[in-house]
Design brief:
Helix content is 3%, strand content 36%. The chain is built from two helices and 30 strands. The strands form seven sheets. The chain has a nine-stranded antiparallel beta sheet. Strands 7-27-26-29-24-23 form a six-stranded antiparallel beta sheet, with no helix packed on it. Strand 23 and strand 24 form a beta hairpin. It starts with 8 loop residues before the first strand and ends in a 24-residue tail after the last helix.
């Protein structure tokens, strides 16, 4: 067994598991056990498992998928998932929506929102998800959804899994502890976590400090690292910096609830024991985390501005080669050195649609105010966007010496499909009514007498 494995045992919810440990690498075939000898050697499903455990496989791809894209893990658990089951009823309605979702019609215009305030009432993660956009069809396993989450308390005696989508967590304020079947993941602002479709978890708030952030549901093919092409073997997100949790389990009897998101709805059942009871596991269908500050950006070192695709951290392919069902793109700290070049992102119209958020700092294309940490915007398919007037004037007149953008981290959920705004987002008081007119602040500079 890997020598970094540390058991993280909890007989009562909220017990401190000790130091959280991880295994490094992206897409590896991992193995880890919280009790010595819990993993069978040389086989997956022995007649009798050690410690009286059950063997269970979770598959993230078809059995016959090519080896390079075949995803599955074997879990050795106190009870199989079928024993963590009951009669499901519809859960209390929330603001979580699933594609296809056509609640409102919006005119063609860029949109931007102020941060959603943290609620004063007691709200856990599942209750605190607010859907902003959806696209595609979850049942058809294509498209994605962009959400904001707010939470003021941990999930207590409550568990959740998403059968509709893979989930990408992007914290903006406050930390999250994700207790998953595979182990424990701690994340805070500047980090992300990905939890595959069907993996059970409980979301805790360390020290019960409120949290806010962004959540992307990926209905399509699982996120993976983008091809680097001519960049070669290094830079961007390096596989070694992705961390997967070591085995940790709960052996706890007592009443609790499990909510399952399936078919676009939330379903809930009562359980008599905790479902995070995996003592050992091996495979490559796993949750993971990544520190975005370890992203190694590349860019132009002479002139012009490269396409934002060079900032892609993770991607989900569509059926069209080279076109993403979903790209997760970041704009981190970096040096700007291009000569005789307008350095911020240029004005453009794009066949892709872009949901953008700001984790911290100032985004270099929106320096005139209004886009603040926790805020978000939508620039949909073939709608114009670009720097605001303050960013344009500043960049057009700046001395072009090497300049480092510091203390900034923005991101995009980008998809080839147009994103539809939910009723909640369309009527939210945080929607900036005048944002669509920011281009009117750009002055006319044309002078035919001056080349």
């Amino acid at each position: 067994m890997d020598d970094v494995v540390r058991p993280a045992l909890s007989t009562a919810q909220g017990a401190t598991p000790g130091p959280v440990a991880y295994l490094s690498g992206f897409g590896n075939g991992f193995e880890t056990e919280a009790l010595p000898g819990a993993l069978p050697v040389g086989r997956n499903s022995p007649q009798t498992c050690a410690y009286g455990l059950y063997a269970e496989q979770i598959s993230g791809s078809a059995f016959t998928a090519p080896r390079a894209s075949n995803q599955r893990s074997w879990l050795y658990r106190i009870r199989p998932t079928v024993a963590h089951w009951g009669t499901f009823t519809k859960a209390t309605p929330t603001l979580w929506r699933t594609a296809p979702c056509a609640e409102v019609e919006m005119p063609p215009a860029p949109l931007r929102w102020d941060p959603v305030p943290l609620p004063s009432e007691s709200v856990s993660f599942v209750e605190g998800v607010r859907t902003i956009t959806t696209t595609g069809d979850a049942a058809g396993k294509s498209g994605m959804a962009s959400h904001i989450y707010v939470a003021t308390r941990s999930m207590r005696d409550a568990y959740f899994y998403n059968a509709d989508a893979e989930m990408l967590f992007v914290p903006q304020q406050g930390a999250l502890r994700l207790w998953t079947e595979f182990g424990i993941i701690d994340i805070t602002g500047g980090e992300i976590a990905v939890v595959p479709r069907g993996v059970k978890l409980r979301v805790e708030l360390p020290d019960e400090q409120p949290a806010r952030g962004y959540l992307c549901e990926n209905y399509g093919s699982p996120l993976t690292l983008p091809e680097r092409g001519p960049i070669g073997a290094n830079c961007l997100a390096n596989p070694r910096d992705f961390l997967t949790p070591v085995a940790a389990y709960e052996d706890r009897d007592g009443p609790c609830t499990m909510t399952v998101k399936w078919g676009g709805a939330l379903w809930q059942t009562e359980l008599a024991h905790a479902p995070l009871d995996v003592v050992a596991w091996h495979g490559n269908y796993v949750p993971y985390k990544y520190d975005l500050r370890r992203f190694s950006p590349v860019g132009p070192i002479l002139f012009d501005h490269a396409d934002p695709s060079i900032f892609t951290v993770l991607t989900s392919a569509s059926a069209t080669p080279g076109t993403a069902n979903l790209d997760f793109v970041i704009f981190p700290e970096r040096w700007l050195v291009a000569e005789n070049t307008f350095r911020p992102p240029w004005y453009h119209m794009n066949t892709m649609s872009e949901f953008m958020g700001l984790i911290y700092g100032v985004y270099d294309a929106k320096t005139g105010g209004g886009f603040v940490p926790g805020g978000f915007s939508l620039h949909n398919c073939m709608l114009p966007h670009g720097p605001d007037a303050a960013a344009f004037e500043g960049a057009s007149n700046a001395e072009l010496k090497p300049h480092k953008l510091t203390g900034t981290l923005a991101f995009m959920f980008e998809t080839c499909l147009p994103q539809r705004v939910t009723r909640y987002a369309a009527t939210a008081p945080e929607l900036q009514a005048a944002y669509a007119e920011y281009g009117r602040g750009l002055r006319k500079h044309f002078d035919p007498s001056r080349p």
